[in-house]
Design goal:
mainly beta; single chain; 8-stranded antiparallel barrel; 167 residues; 10% helix; Lipocalin; Lipocalin-like domain-containing protein; globular; Lipocalin-like
Length: 167
């Protein structure tokens, strides 16, 4: 594996928003669901990554109208389970077959089990109708509610090019 951040920095650094999410059956590759998620990722020219992803429950006001810290535990739990966030520096690699993937060491995370751990994603960059897209596939599979293993696929569209620091 070869570190390739300098080569790809300008194609990856910047702001990205989720445009499509699929969960695929790991054994067949067939799409089993398309979760309705919203999310933003910002990647600095130095490789700092900050990711926020939420389902529809986590982007609406609490039913009680109370502030998050004083809301009933059931409301807080419902929102917390629908929200994911992590940040840390990322490294970008190319493997022996030419496949891009990144590793992010989580310094802060909403899922405390991610702290200090590596978040690994396969990376596919593309252009469609003049727009830039980045498709990320986590290397780790998930277990769906019905017990089968699924692979998440996140398609992101660039909404902002990262500014390059001038000296």
């Amino acid at each position: 594996m070869t570190e390739v951040w300098e080569e790809y920095r300008d194609r990856i650094a910047g702001g990205w928003q989720i445009v499509e999410v699929e969960q695929r059956d790991s054994s067949t590759g067939s799409v089993v669901s398309k979760p309705e998620l919203t999310g933003k990722v910002y990647i600095s020219p130095q490789g700092w990554l900050s990711a926020l992803i939420a389902d529809s429950v986590a982007i609406n006001p609490l039913p009680s109208g109370q502030q998050f810290r004083s809301a009933p535990d059931a409301e807080v739990a419902r929102v917390a389970r629908g929200f994911q966030a992590y940040c840390g520096y990322m490294k970008l690699f190319k493997d022996d077959e030419g496949q891009l993937y990144w590793q992010t060491k989580s310094e802060i995370a909403s899922d405390l089990n991610q702290l200090g751990g590596l978040q690994e994603r396969l990376v596919f960059l593309s252009m469609e109708n003049g727009k830039e897209y980045m498709t990320l596939i986590p290397k780790a599979q998930r277990v769906a509610a019905d017990g089968r293993k699924v692979q998440a696929v996140f398609k992101w569209e660039r909404f902002e090019q990262a500014a390059r620091a001038s000296l």
